[in-house]
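#lab-general

N.A. 3:47 PM
ok so I finally got the sequence cleaned up, no stray characters, all 247 residues accounted for. can someone with queue access submit it? mine expired

B.Y. 3:52 PM
send it over

N.A. 3:53 PM
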Amino acid sequence: MSFELHKNEILGIAGVQGNGQSELVSSIIGMEKIRDGYVAILESEKATVLNNLSIMERLKYAISYIPEDRNKEGMIPNFSVSENIWLAYHDLETEAEIATGETQQKSFLSILTIPINLLGKLARLVIDRFSVKTPSSETKMKNLSGGNQQKVIVGREIMKNPRVLVINQPTRGVDIGVMQKIHEEIIKLRNSGTGVLLVSSDLDEVLTLSDRLLVMYSGKIVAEGTIEEIGMGRLSHLMIGGKEEEA
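B.Y. 4:20 PM
back already:
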């Protein structure tokens, strides 16, 4: 497959779950090695190929990632809310770095220590902005409801202001109020210039949020365009059988 994701765009993947969406996301993040081809970020006519970068380097350089299974990939249940938020920022030393994206040379000691004041400030920012219901930022993640766990993970990644946000099932298992809040924040991020790749088994969610669609079937892209260009009837047939309905 081959496709482009642009700034200020939500690109939705429409398809029945199990047709290669998770493998696609894993390949972009670096959890699955690409045998052929490349993933690249193009800025000012200069392409940075991500293939040889580690997962950590990809996440630091350009990408925020909201995983399909928050319990397996998104959090450490026995860590506190603030510690789970810090997972996205632990290689940054100062408030200025988080605000500007600048990096500084770190001593070995600084890598082993956690700046407690900064950790607490970050946690409060996420909790307040995403209306996370928790007794405190030191509450263990496993003691939060599923919806509030998801808000912590989504908030942590969105507040990095990434070039690219890759989301797999952003609102799985959450109530309508949490879903609306997450949708609002995804749209805000898109409007600020981020390119968003959205994977969801909820077709209504994909159609509501996406500026453009890719239709996936059996590991391939079988159609591309807006919902108006593809059409609902055609979309349904492509998702189920990978080809147009015969007359």
